[in-house]
Design brief:
Radius of gyration: 18 Å
Helix content: 10-25%
Order of helices and strands: HHEEEEEEEEEEEEHEEE
Strand order of the largest sheet: 3-10-7-6-13-1-2-9
Strand content: 25-35%
Shape: globular
Structural class: mainly beta
Amino acid sequence: EAMETIITRMDDIRFDLSRLEKEGDMIPFSNVTLQAPLPMPHKILCMGGNFTEFGHRRPGPMWGFLKSSEAVIGPGGTVILPPDDANIFHHEAELVLVFGREGKDVKEEEALEYIFGYTCGVDVSARMPVVSGGVPAAFQAWRGVALHKSFPTFAPIGPAIVTKDEVSDPQNLQIHLSVNDELRGDFNTSDMAHSIAKAISFVSSYESFGPGDILYTGTNHQGLGAMQDGDKINIEIEEVGGFSFTVEDHL
């Protein structure tokens, strides 16, 4: 609720925040533990298949899903891999946008006006065995809550929210993800098959959103690898920041 209040009242408190930045008592990062900037968003909206994979995939029909809000963890947190029957657990580095106002059925040309800012996120995904007789993915534009992406701790975000005025071009940001200092993800948001504005318009045709809700904008799948016990994973997004988290697998 505190962050929601800041988001909705930013115009009123911007001067006071700027004054505190210059005159307030400074606390070193080494003396604090950062929490997730939005520990319990009402909705976590997600885009699926939203990158051209360096131009190798043609933009297809848009689709998306929801992650459970209870999956959020912050910087320095731990992703706990569940004992469920998954083929592999993947890390998907993504630019995450934070909404600053309520919206539903948003027009593409007005979509960017609904953004408050940006943060980094990893969409942790359990690749589950395909159940026979399921509905083909091509006929599921909006898939509801994705259970295989909604286990507790499967939505790391952080380290902070950068307001949209501080990001020069959200469609031209380099994203890096490393596992135990091995670079795996290295791509740019310019590779999105569907722009941020189009993504907002699309998801809002299925779901309403409010201040403090977030949208994972998708990932380039090149470089995906397994998440395993003891891994330290780091995500960095140009102009937005970065953070690390660890992985535990009790099996």
